[in-house]
Amino acid sequence: MTRARTTASFRFPPVTVLVGGALAGTLCGLVLTLAAPVPGVTEPDAVVRYGLPVVRVLLDVAAVATVGLSLLPILVGQHRRTRAEAVLAGARRAGAVSALVWAVCALVALVMQTAEVKPGPGVSPAAVLDYVARVGAGKALVFVAALALVSFGLGLAAVKTGDRVPPELRTAVALFALLPMAVTGHATSARWQDLSTISLELHVLAAAGWTGGLGAVVVLLAAHRALLATALPRFSTLATVCIAVVAVTGVFNGLVELTAARSLTDALFGTAYGVLVLLKLTCLGLLAAVGARIRWRLLPAVLRQQRTALATWAMLELAVMGLAIGFGVVLARAPVG
Amino acid sequence: MRRFVSVVVVACLALVGHATPAFAHNSLIGSNPANESTVQESPSTIELTFDQPVQTGEGLNTIAVTGPEGTNWTVGPAAVASNVVSAPLSDLGPTGTYRIGYRILSADGHPVSGEVTFTLAKAGDGTPAASTASDGEATAETDEGGLPIWVWILGAVVLLGAGLTVALRIGGQGR
């Protein structure tokens, strides 16, 4: 119980850091993409205009947390699982909770997107159903909510029965639930449609695995040097693959979207979309630098099970990841130009 | 690690099945009257042409015309024919700059809004619409069974609370 309590004291700041970073990124992005109201046309309520990006970013963070927490047993490794049981039990419970937050955020986002499309004083259930029937993004949110609820169910089963629910299954369901929104997102240009859709899906999967994995490892294992010594090298391999995938797919999608209507330099520096892409690239550079430092400076000490400044560096990395997720939410909704 | 790789492989296979047609944000490529043009007589219809089809549906697409000194002019319901949105316009009044504001539902499900301006060179004999008329109509239409957004959010919070309680109960029994 005392061990659980020490990990609990570590648990709070990283979550706050990630959510705080994500909200800050969203707000920056919103300010950048602020458009003048169009004369004569009813605007959606301020609650919807500002609330929707906030809900979307909370949805993303909950999704990332669910993926990371279900990855944790895999990173810890089968032969260490009995030793790690106290930590893993906490991870399973947190994973069930984050899956539920994910599902609820998807439902709220669905209602808010209905209100965004049909501005008015209220949203009727019929209007929500109509939105789902008509718009792909509505169907996607329904699928996300359903898959997140399945994830919640699996999470509850795992809380009750331990690893009899294989963590690989929970991870697969959580990763699968990330996809519907990427498919219906607008960041898929008419040119190279199939390729850019798949590229965007890979981007989302890699970003979630990377951010979630780092969060889970740092939050739950920082106080357990023996477990950290096996989990961190595995995570480091995963992170290297993920950063490469995130970089390649992100640059590809950015180029496709930016060069659709105008020259690259013009779009990159002249539009809010371009500036957001540049901001995300900066985040990626920072993340790579911090990741490299963790891998080559801190990892050897972690392997010797020495005291390290891992928590501080990982916190910085989580904050930057949060910012990138926040920019991403605005980017997914902003028009180019 | 090998099992993890298999998970990734399965997830990647799922991607291929997912690759369905996706659409981008619509953007305006032309209009009648054209942007920043000067017309001699008040146009009877407004036509906005986009680069991709626009989603059809009642109340999803709106076009409004604002005249000199912020006057509102009557625009009929917008009709969609593939990538062209058009709406009938009644006679305009004094000469000056008119602004066409639009808000349409893009193929990707995102609302897209913007404006086009034109100048009327010869005064027509129309009179501005009472500004509240169209607003009142819209309110009456959406008010039926419509719940304010905070009610939905409150419902979501209650749902979350109930779920958390269940989760903690089950967790407690598991120990």
What's a quick, concise take on this entry?
The complex is a heterodimer of chains A (337) and B (175). Chain A is mainly alpha-helical.
How would you portray this structure in words?
- The complex is a heterodimer of chains A (337) and B (175).
- With 337 residues, chain A is mainly α.
- Chain A has one domain.
- Chain A is globular, with a radius of gyration of 20 Å.
- Chain A has twelve helices and no strands.
- Chain B has two domains: 52 residues; 121 residues, Immunoglobulin-like (Sandwich), CATH 2.60.40.
- Helix content of chain B is 32%, strand content 28%.
- In chain B, strands 2-9-8-4-5 form a five-stranded mixed sheet, with no helix packed on it. A four-stranded antiparallel sheet of chain B has the order 1-3-7-6, with no helix packed on it.
- The radius of gyration of chain B is 25 Å and the shape is elongated.
- The two termini of chain B are 29 Å apart.
- About 11% of the residues of chain B have low confidence.
- At the A-B interface, helix 2, helix 3, helix 4, helix 5 and helix 6 of A face helix 1, strand 4, strand 8, strand 9 and helix 2 of B.
Could you tell me the radius of gyration of chain A in angstroms? 20 Å
For the record, the count of structural domains of chain B works out to 2
Task: Examine the coordinates and then state which fold CATH places here, giving the name of the CATH topology of the largest domain in chain B.
Answer: Immunoglobulin-like
Q: What oligomeric state is this?
A: heterodimer
What is the CATH top level name of the largest domain in chain B?
Answer: Mainly Beta
Rg of chain B is 25 Å
Which percent range describes the beta-strand content of chain A?
under 5%
What number of domains of chain A? 1
Distance between the termini of chain A: 55 Å
Number of DSSP strands of chain B?
Answer: 9
* Neighbour order of strands in the largest sheet of chain B: 2-9-8-4-5
Determine the N-to-C terminus distance of chain B. Answer: 29 Å
The ordered H/E elements of chain B are: HEEEEEEEEEHH
Total E-strand runs of chain A: 0
Domain CopC (chain B): 25-120
Protein name (chain B): Copper resistance protein CopC
Organism (chain B): Actinophytocola xanthii
Transmembrane segments (chain B): 149-170
